[in-house]
Amino acid sequence: MNLRALVTQPVTLGLLLAAAAGVLLSEWFFTQAQDEMLAERQEREVVMQAMALADQVATLEAAAPDSAAPQLAALTVAWSARFPDIVAIRVVRSADAMFLASTNPRDAAPLPRRLAREEKSLYDLGQSLRASVETNTAEGVFRKKQIDITRLDRKRLQVAAPYAVDGKVLGFVQVEQRVAAPVLPPAIGRAAAAIAAPFALFLLVSGWLRSRAAAPGRPWAQYSVAVLLLGAALYGQAGDGLAKLGVRHQAFAVELAQQFTTIKQAFEGATRAIAIDATGPVTGNRWDVDEYQRPRGIIGGDGALARGALAAELGARESRLARSLWGNLALSLLLLSFVALGYARRLRQTLTEHKIAYGYVTPAILGMLVLVFFPFVYGVTLSFTDTTLFNENLSLRELWVGLKNYVTILGDFQVVRGTEGGWVINYQNFYWTLFITIAWTVCNVAIGVGVGLALALALNTKGLRFTNVYRVLLILPWAIPNYITALTWRGMFHKQYGVINQVIQIF
Fold it and tell me: Tens digits of per-residue pLDDT, 196-216?
């Protein structure tokens, strides 16, 4: 058996390239999922602290709004002493633009005081949180985020949570904290094994197939073996990665539960220290919420984990990741087929033979890819998601709904419905829009082509007087926009007043 010939054949090279691409892309997906979990764990910890502080501030404001400043100062100092990772705590009553308390030495003293002009961002933040809470309450849905989470840099996280008295949002508590994500060792060994194992097995099987064939091997049998080995390698890597992700998810949940217990103890200790009589013992967990202040329901008031909710959260995370892994498998099989079945060799030969022609059309191809094909493909992809103006910051895999949009649109046949005032047309119905589009297209083509043909035949009449005048009048609608464009460019290149020369002079 000629090992060199076996290694350099298209099926072997295709398997090696597909395995390397698929495995490395899968590792990237797992790394992203781990980073997402780490970021969520850090954010949830700081959110719980901000929510607990907001509860205490609301209690103090409700008991004595005019004399709560000394207790607020003591509260923020005590809380910062209990949690050394906290960089600064700010309490702002945005209802009347008052800066009540802060542990940040850069904030100008004395406090309380009115917000300064350069602190307008704090006032705007408070008004934004208040508007979000009131909008969500009035509409009965969680549409706007009620907690502001900002990553200042890789090591600092800032969370602002609103506090309310008698159902009215008065201000917010802002907690800035240092965060240090644990170092995650790269899975180099797992990736190398996932690439090397199918490659080595394929060489053995392919050598056996060649030894049993009279001619140079069995290409389709080799291709089938390569597909099976690639699928098995990626499936095994995905199973191992998902299992480790589940273990880490469980560990993070336990750490958050312990942190909740610590925050609960700090809350009750601070309550006794500043003598807040109105705040009773913590009986539930109203602090572990998302950005919309919806309870997660994973950590109970006693710090115990709700196994069902935890499993559901892990299942949703794994489901989003599984869609990416399935897509990765499809791309890997496509790459394997492209190389193994000879299409890569044909493409290389074509590019080599016509390299000058392809060099000429490359700029146009790149322009079409960026300006036409990418927007088209991205638009089609968005149709399979639940993307709106309010959730466009989320990843597509979190918003993926499959064919739900198509089923909803195509299944709605209520174009016209009867009411007490008569028949009403649903102008947002797909079939009404389709009817208007077809009607407009038919009328536009019929009138445009018909009138144009009639005018062309009329101008072609022999002996027609003033033919040149008619032709000028007909060509004006086409020529005027081009003439205006030429004048615009001429003005842009004006030596003294043109914008292009003005920009050049800047440099």
Answer: 888 788 777 766 666 655 444
CA gap 466, 7 in Å, rounded:
79
What are the angstrom distances between the C-alpha of 165 and each of 56, 169, 278? 11, 6, 13
Cα 90 → chain centroid: 30
Give the contacts of 344 (CB within 8 A, at least 6 positions apart): 10, 14, 338
Closest CA to 11 of 336, 340, 300, 326: 340
Q: pLDDT tens for residues 341-389? A: 888 888 888 888 888 998 899 999 999 999 999 999 999 999 988 887 6
3-state SS, 158-169, equals EEEEEEEECCEE
Lowest mean pLDDT among 155-159, 273-277, 452-456: 273-277
The residue assigned the tokens 């049993």 is 212
Summarize pLDDT for 91-149 with one digit per residue, the tens: 888 888 888 888 888 887 788 888 888 888 888 899 989 998 988 888 887 778 889 98
CA distance 59 to 55: 6
Closest CA to 7 of 192, 204, 193: 204
Alpha-carbon span 444 to 453, nearest angstrom? 14
